[in-house]
Write a structure and sequence with these properties.
alpha/beta, Rossmann fold, 9 helices, 38% helix, 20% strand
Length: 230
């Protein structure tokens, strides 16, 4: 069988987004008031009930896809519940096909929702999110699409407030560097004391299908860790 080629991210953007600081500061200084999607409000209600019934700290897996990362996070944080969010019903439907022991499965809730709305709702509900995983988000690599990236969107200030630890993984170096720079800019403007670390890394065990695919194809992987000192 012929091996499928895994292409690296290509972009007309050679370095971090030229208007990054201006964009981040604009969103830090304004309130994001987009109406919540109705299906996300309903999904969040179920997730909020799950979290409160569990009475445990939360690990948030944003853009969980088929849920492979969610199981890995549940194993990594045995004292927590994992709320795994993705907007794709097709991807979420595949989570049940993954092998997992009953303890891990009992601590994971899969939710179909829009992340930008879900994050604001979780922040308003004052969830105790100890770790926020954002693994291999859509990089929107064209410079004309840059403001669709999480760190260049109006929800970024809320994203930084969600958890004392935000872990981003990507196979595009510019995205990871941008995320780190945006966090430093926003943190300073919001008077948050942040430790931001950007690095290339080699996974001991790939935790997502994307990570396995990219790593298996010999691509470099990058991680940005944002730690808020509360």
């Amino acid at each position: 069988m012929q091996q499928r080629t895994v292409h690296e991210v290509t972009s007309n953007q050679a370095d971090i987004y030229e208007n990054l600081e201006e964009t981040v500061i604009r969103y830090v200084s304004t309130e994001y008031r987009r109406p919540f999607a109705e299906h996300t409000v309903k999904a969040f209600g179920a997730a909020d009930a799950f979290v409160r019934a569990a009475g445990r700290p939360v690990v948030l897996d944003s853009g969980c896809g088929t849920g492979r990362s969610s199981f890995a996070l549940a194993a990594r944080f045995p004292e927590c519940v994992v709320v795994a969010v993705d907007k794709s019903e097709v991807r979420l439907s595949k989570s049940s096909s993954l092998l997992c022991d009953k303890d891990l499965l009992s601590r994971i809730l899969f939710v179909r929702a829009e992340l930008l709305d879900f994050w604001r709702l979780a922040l308003s509900a004052n969830w105790n999110i100890v770790h926020h995983a954002v693994f291999y988000p859509n990089p929107w690599p064209k410079s004309s699409e840059a403001t669709r990236r999480f760190h260049l969107s109006p929800v970024f200030p809320a994203m930084l407030k969600l958890s004392p630890v935000t872990e981003l993984r990507t196979n595009w170096e510019i995205y990871a560097r941008e995320f780190a720079e945006a966090a430093n800019i926003a943190g300073s403007a919001m008077e948050l004391e942040l430790s931001v670390n950007f690095e290339s890394f080699v996974p001991l065990v790939p935790e997502t299908a994307f990570e396995e695919k990219y790593f298996g194809a010999g691509q470099k992987l990058y991680r940005t860790m944002v730690v808020r000192k509360d």
